[in-house]
Amino acid sequence: MLQSLHVKNLALIDEAEVIFSPGLNILTGETGAGKSLLLGSINLALGGKVSKDMIREDKNYALVELSFFIQDEKKREKLKQMDVFLEEDGQLFISRRIMNGRSTSKVNGETISAAQLHQITELLLDIYGQHEHQSLLYRSKHLEILDEFAGKELLLKKQNLIEVFEEYKKAVEKRKEFQLDEEQRVKECAFLKFEIEEIENAQLKQGEEEELTAWYKRAIHSRKILETISRIHEEIGSGASEGAGEKIGRAVKDISTIVEYDEELNSIQGQLENIDELLSDVCRETASYLSSLEFDEGEFSEKESRLDVIRALEGKYGSSIEKIFAYQKEKIERLSLLENYQIHKEKAEAEEREKKQIVLKICEEVSSIRKKAAKGLIKRITDGLKDLNFLEVKFDIFFEKMENPTRNGYDEIEFMISTNPGSPLRPLGKVASGGELSRIMLAIKTVLSEKDGVETLIFDEIDTGISGRTAQKVSEKLSEIAQKRQVLCITHLAQIAAMADSHYVIKKSVTKNKTVTEIQTLSQNEMIEELARILGGAEITETIRNSAKEMKDLAKKMQKRDNSFS
Fold first, then answer.
1. What predicted TM-score, i.e. pTM, was given to this entire model?
2. Cα–Cα distance for residue pair 93/353, rounded to 1 Å
3. Cα(206)–Cα(332) distance, rounded to whole angstroms?
4. Nearest one of 56, 82, 53, 62 to 70, comparing CA atoms
5. Spatial distance between the Cα atoms of 318 and 312, rounded to a whole number of angstroms
């Protein structure tokens, strides 16, 4: 149940808090007072669209907070599975802070995503406004309503259908690959053979490119290498009088003449001898390298040409030898398929037919569940419509089988209705007026609310296009729903307002040269005054007050009667 709503700095609302009650909560007020703003703020808290101009002038943020009391153990368990843990007293707090077009949503103090928020809130309440009524004009909505009524059995079967349909889609795509005519097939085969042979003829080897690149790099820099190594050999060689080798050799001889006079010189002598040996090794290696460093014009040209071949292939088939081999493998497989085209085509067609039959079988099972559920839904909605002053109404659900199955089955359905005696059934969207649509949606939501277990229902624009006896019937239906669910309803009609268990009036006033919207909870006497305002308009006479009191008394008697039957 929705316990409270707290709004701060939102549009015309400076700060307001409403404590809601079980049963039927009615919200009334003058046109333009901000009734829709109140429900709009609930929508915001539930993840509705945010705009910068929602924030009250001279304020830098807006805040909407909802508190719920969750008693139902099943709901508590579902919330727990979503990692949402209630307070010890069973309370759940949802808040949304809006700042310059940005917003942050929290549940029990923890920040959550919009998707998570939607999952949580759809367990707690439903809001029905004018756009929900208008959605009945679309056939897709009709299927959605029926499937919701059908419940868990259909849901499980549709999940199975989605899985097999995805496999069927893959089979369809695979079959579509076999749409070449003979001329196209021959041309592609010829081209594939050319590519495969070109790669084969190159006789590529793994690591070949790296090896050739290193050799080529050395070859094109051979002059610089020769000059540098020659200079190094000269500088460290023992043949040159000023070479490092000659100097270290002399140092070794010199140290040997004095080492007998001090044992500590043994260490220095050893190090000098090591250096001498290392220089000798380096000198031999540089000499050997120089003798091997020969430039062969023919070899250079050969290896350069080989690199050109590899890089040309890389430009066509892949950026490395590994990728060229992968490309070749792919084309070999494709060539094999084309050379056995008819066999593979027939196999793909057979697989598609097989998968389609599986899909059609499950579609049939889905349709069977829907048709069974439709019988119950037709009766329930028909009864509900009669309760809402559709006296001679006929309601039916028309099924049509689509040519091709979808992940949702092969059913197209449409709600059909006749609201007048002798009139044939016609599509709902072509018959119903705005007022009728709102009542039909009310009947539907009454049925669905019993199945989904949502504890709080919010109705806006439910009284569109109705009056008199019909308005009375709608009020009785809302009161009936409110015996098992918490209901919030914005209304302009006294017949509906009179049924209120709790009544709130929304007023607009000017304080310190600023327009503000305020919400007031009404006492029993204030309820009567508000009913009188709705009935009387500009001037409220004592007669109108008496009428309002009589209307409220009759509503109470009717509620007691209904309670005795429930």
1. 0.65
2. 53
3. 19
4. 82
5. 10
Give the Cβ contact number of residue 301 at 10 Å.
10
Q: What is the largest CA-CA distance in the chain?
A: 139
Phi, psi of 95 (to 5 degrees): -135, 150
Of the candidates 525, 537, 554, 520, which has an alpha carbon nearest to the alpha carbon of residue 28?
Answer: 520
**What residues pair up with 458 in beta bridges, in sequence order?**
127, 488
**φ and ψ of 47, to 5 deg:** 105, 15
Question: DSSP state, 127?
Answer: E
CA 121 – CA 455 distance, rounded (Å): 11
Place of tokens 């009191």: 549
* The two three-digit tokens of residue 10, written as one number: 């939102």
- Angle 67-69-72 from CA coordinates, rounded to 5°: 145
**From CA 10, how far away is CA 44, in angstroms rounded?**
10
Most confident of 16-25, 47-56, 92-101, 507-516: 16-25
Helices (H), 20-86: 35-45, 73-81
Least Cα distance to 549 among 525, 566, 564, 528 occurs for 528
pLDDT digits (tens, 9 = 90+) for 437-459: 778 888 888 888 777 667 888 88
Tens of pLDDT, residue by residue over 77-90, are 888 888 888 887 88
Q: Are 307 and 209 in contact (CB under 8 A)?
A: yes
pLDDT attached to residue 376: 94
DSSP 55: B
Q: What distance in Å separates the CA atoms of residue 408 and residue 229, rounded to the nearest whole number?
A: 78
Alpha carbon distance 115, 121 (integer Å) = 10
**Position 223, amino acid:** R
Determine the straight-line distance between the first and last CA of the chain, rounded to whole angstroms. 20
In order of 207, 229, 232, 290, 291, the CA distances from 285 in angstroms are 27, 10, 11, 9, 10
Give the pLDDT of residue 229.
75
Name the 3-class secondary structure at 512: coil
CA 31 – CA 33 distance, rounded (Å): 6
**pLDDT band at residue 223 under the 50/70/90 scheme:** low
Q: What are phi and psi of 452, to 5 degrees?
A: -85, -15
What single letter denotes the amino acid at residue 332? I
Give residue 497's identity as a one-letter amino acid code: A
* Res. 24: pLDDT tops 90: yes
How far is Cα 481 from Cα 449, in angstroms, rounded to an integer? 9
Q: How do residues 482-504 score in pLDDT, each as one tens digit? A: 888 899 998 888 999 999 999 99
